[in-house]
Amino acid sequence: MPDPIDAVYRAESRRVLATLIRLLGDFDLAEEALQDAFAEAIEKWPIEGMPANPRTWLVSAGRFRAIDKMRRRATFDAALARVSAYAQNSAHTPADIDDERVDDDELRLIFTCCHPALAGDAQIALTLREVCGLSTEVIAHAFMTSAPTIAQRIVRAKGKIRDARIPYELPARGELTDRLDAVLRVIYLVFNEGYSASAGDSLTRVELSAEAIRLGRLLVDLLPEPEVIGLLALMLLHDSRRGARVSPAGELVLLSDQDRSRWNRDLIAEGTVLVERALSSRRAGPYSLQAAISAVHAEAPGAEATDWAQIVGIYDVLLRMDPAPIVELNRAAAVAMRDGPVAGLMLIDAILVRGDLTDYQHAHSARADCLRRLDRRDEAAAAYRHALSLTTQDAERQFLERRLAGLLAAPPLMQREIHPKLPNERGRRT
Amino acid sequence: MRYLCIIYDDEKAWENMSQADVEKGMAAYFAFDDSIKKSGHHRVGEALQPTNTATTVRVRNGKISTTDGPYVETKEQLGGFYLIEARDLNDAIQVAARIPSAQWGAIEVRPIQEFPEQQ
Q1: Which end of chain B has fewer CB atoms within 10 angstroms, the N or the C?
Q2: What is the ipTM metric for this complex?
Q3: Other C-beta atoms within 10 Å of A204: how many?
């Protein structure tokens, strides 16, 4: 593709697609029309010159080609006849493709791809394919699965949109909160897949996080709800630490051990402004509050200077809003920093005794960390081993193994307790 | 477009309910019936007798075999259905969410397969 057209493709293809889906009433037809429109542009623009408004030109060209094709095919295919009738009968005026409607089309596309009637993994695949324009190969690579699997998910999702008639529209006011939750969840999952997953090459992962942030920015432009702003802030603040959270050897570096000079100050500044904007709405939700916690970390010059009291306070609010065991665990870890390891350990043990999070790696590693700080080494070692048995990620496994090795090698902080009931490898060392 | 809203709930729960609660549940259903008749969504709606009245029929090699009970044993049973006319899935979901059993059971929303000759 010649360069100027390539630039238009990168800037406008998703928005053209979003409008074509509305005008044609069908995802596959719209994608075909998009390709046809660009093929025509490559033919005509170098001769006739770039049109004043390339996007409108592409939408019109795509729509015209699609209707023409449908007319020719409709005789053979009854289902297509119905779509064809829709595409031709709905009266479209130039106002239909003005900027405001087109913004709405992008939102329509996002809300449709993240419709809660679609399976979760299908929502993600469809959003990355249709809204972000990633190829099925790239999506498959990012989620460590095969391209045919991803393609099949997308085909099924499109099939359900068509057959169950999921409408291409913005949610009604009464549905907005639920529907927006699904969109935010998809964006955050995409971000986390790019940020937390240790498998897959780093290039693909950076791309995924970048796409999630791009979607977050787009959504803030189109629908500046407090939680939309909060989610973007959260992603930017996490992303600001990307360079510092993994060592050159690929090992995970704890927040407290990270080289803070490597944090991206521009992202922190932008994220912090957004957090304040979300919180000042007084309708802040879980994403905004998590972003606020991340902002407190970001403003601390060092781990020991962190305002743990403020962090525990935000977790208190978060816990009232979302009384989930994982939130409780994170609060316990913050309490362990504010009030010391004994206080933290009591809270963590209370969660585990209740039967929650017993198979959650981070519960056992947080517990191990409290025990380590108390120099209760045997118990700490047992907890690290338990955490190790539950982890599936290489970077986490390496981190836990290092902690375990450090624990066994370090000189005792105080007189070591003897546990005669637990003869283990430590017995041989002494 | 037509959708079948299939109602699943625990029929034992109905059996063990107090008379007052059963009446409350019935009243909620009567009110829902009225509302979807007024809104134009209603086509057909029926409640089914409990699964202990069910018979499953199969024909294999031309021979009829009948067995007692429903085809599958589940915690929540098929207890009734509504056939509705809805603009699209979002509209159907809004109707299904107002079926009283959605509060304690679950509603499966399935689009009706339209064949060309029906159109």
Answers
A1: C
A2: 0.83
A3: 19
